[in-house]
Amino acid sequence: MDYELLLTAPSGGETRDFAQLVQTMSWSGSVRQTARELSATLAVPRDGSVTPPALREGAYLTLRRAGETVFTGPLLTATTSSQDSLVDLSALDRGRFLVRNEGWYSFSGVTPETAAAAIARDYGIPVGTLAAAGVSVSRKFPGVALDKIIRTLYGLAGEQNGKRYLVRFTGDGALEVVEKPTSASLSIASTMAVTNTWDITNLQNSVAIRTQEGALVRRVEDADSVALNGRLEHVITQRDGEDAGSEAQAWLEDNGLQQNLTVETLGDPRLITGEAVLLRDTGSGVSGLFWIDGDTHTWKNGQYYCKLTLNFRNLVDDTRAGSEL
């Protein structure tokens, strides 16, 4: 086996490796989900040759590959049956503690990384690297899920500095916020299947910048798209002394033509949500720079492969929670 699937009994008890019992296993993530998921189906003999795993509340699953921990998280579901020897398990990483905890915060003129560090400290969440946004934001959150608070603050910063951020957890369970890359250090040269979908369902190709009184300041638009599809307009209210041009341009980029690829390829644990990849697939004829919006890594019958959702746009996180101060 090229991996270890470790189950640790509640309260830091015995840890056992059940990799030899795995029938199929999946490790997955998405830009829409803060927590990554691990699920597995085990074949546990009923003849007494193997001590059954301790599938109790409080147990932890850990996935290690080549000596590196790529996932750790609490066991959330376990299903057994008296009719067969199969056991289904699922776990979420510590992103669950951001999703399932709600906080009451008011931040005024602080950087997102400062706010994220304070939230993590309040809830005892280990912290890795938090991207330095370089701008200050203000927002109040009366009883809002912690992941939505952090994603909102970094999203607001992205509207100012034009950068894109991803909130996630390291394999060993530390919170990190990373700036999504603008160029690719990874490439895919061979695929098993490629599905290409383009979509303008939610297209908005024009942004009207208006004063707080409603007067039109100017329009920022995608002229080619307007010519093809007609004007579909979004309105941004510009405060006195501000220039909403960057925000308008970002809106056009995030609400333009959407092109998504579903790519099946050989497994590579580096191909995870948020990373940029250069696709050079001679079979489908599709090539270019793409960002991974979703990934599912599967181990089955001794094979390791992954299915990726790729986007040719590096989209801003559109999570918006709380309200203005």
TrEMBL record:
Positions of the YqbQ/XkdQ domain: 25-310
Domain of life: Bacteria
UniProt xrefs under InterPro entries: Baseplate-like_2-layer_sand, YqbQ/XkdQ
Protein name: YqbQ/XkdQ domain-containing protein
